[in-house]
Amino acid sequence: MRRVSVFGATGSIGQSTLDLIGRGAYDVVALSGGSNIGQLARDAIRLRADVAVTAFDDKLSDLRDALAGSGVAAAAGKTALEEAADRPADWIMSAIVGAAGLTPGLRALRHGTTLALANKESLVCAGPLLMAEARRHGATILPVDSEHSAVFQTLVGEDMAAVEKVIITGSGGGLRDWPLARLAEATPEQAGKHPNWDMGQRITIDSASMMNKAMELIETKEFFGLPPEMIDTIIHPQSLIHALVQFNDGALMAHLGTPDMRHAIGYALNWPDRGPVPVERLDLAKVAQLDFHAPDPARYPALDLARRVMGQGGLSGAAFNAAKEAALDLFLARAIRFTDMAPLVARVLDQMDADNRLEADTLSLDMVQDTDTRARQIARDLA
Ligand code: NAD
Ligand code: MG
Fold this sequence. Notes:
Blueprint: E1 2-7, H1 12-22, E2 26-33, H2 37-46, E3 51-54, H3 60-67, E4 73-76, H4 78-86, E5 91-94, H5 102-109, E6 114-117, H6 120-136, E7 140-143, H7 146-154, E8 163-170, H8 188-191, H9 201-208, H10 211-224, E9 231-235, E10 241-247, E11 252-256, H11 262-270, H12 284-287, H13 302-312, H14 316-332, H15 341-354, H16 365-382
Helix pairs in contact: 2-3, 4-5, 5-6, 6-10, 6-14, 10-13, 14-15, 14-16, 15-16
The structure holds nicotinamide-adenine-dinucleotide (NAD) and magnesium ion.
Magnesium ion binds near residues 145, 146, 147 and 216.
Protein name: 1-deoxy-D-xylulose 5-phosphate reductoisomerase
Keywords: Isomerase, Isoprene biosynthesis, Magnesium, Manganese, Metal-binding, NADP, Oxidoreductase
Cofactor: Mg(2+); Mn(2+)
């Protein structure tokens, strides 16, 4: 039986992953969560995990109580998360939200495992480090972001030298049709509703600002090793085409499917084979029409930030991700407006650039974490 672990098991991606795991025969090693102890314990008991880990130390006694008599071990805190990633497993889902997902993923790669990577923040803040670690230990990273899974699938059997362009689609988010002048009034509740995808709150707001697409452009560069000028995005309101790859003979290959993350998760779980996944099938006759338009840079300033980060490399991704997370925290706390987020991130990058803090030939975990801490502090100071 394949041994699997799921980090961020109580979240949106985590729950979809457990849904698929629960339908098959897997040996569940570790599940991790945050403060939703009831869910974590129920899933760990139901799936007979060896250990359940909460990220938060002060939740340990609650978790112990919830697991009492079940035979599932309880653990808590950052170190426990890393130790859980050290437990031998054949397949590990990295679905913690935010930069907190980086270290468990890195630890898992050191054991040569297959890492299904939903945590795009790891690639944005430390792409070269993650990819080098995977190479060094013979580990495999499989993309779980829907766009990147789509590109990955489209590239099977293809020669990268024949690729001209990779285009990832974006829905434009929940505020896509709002007049520009009203965007400044948007509340977290309004920005937190997605037209097509059912996702965690943070990524849903990042979709409305297209900060998520900015992250995904950088993710494309880091994962597929492509130069920025070969990577593009287009608004496709229906979210049925997830990505397209253009080849040097003029062929444009698209990946289509209903917006259900269980497709990308299932592809990674079954890889290198395909296996049945219970997602709704796409009925093109019913869909009838697919729409596209270029994103307006005034509405989505995050896309320019992505170009800047892709061009600069070094520690700019770590600074960008941390500043973006800090800006989102401030927006959620109603301390800044929706439209203040991208300019705030730009000012953090400006300041760190002026202080010569973003240049680096090779990345270390310490450098990334130091940049992360500093960028969050600067964002809070500037806000
Ligand atoms: P979510 O908020 O629903 O779940 C996040 C998970 O991380 C939960 O299990 C939570 O307990 C845990 N967590 C939160 N803070 C933590 C911390 N400090 N330390 C350890 N664990 C912590 O998020 P989600 O929407 O499932 O997204 C998870 C990841 O997948 C993100 O990186 C996101 O960008 C990516 N992703 C999500 C979707 C989607 O459809 N939801 C699609 C593509 C990519
Ligand atoms: Mg995506």
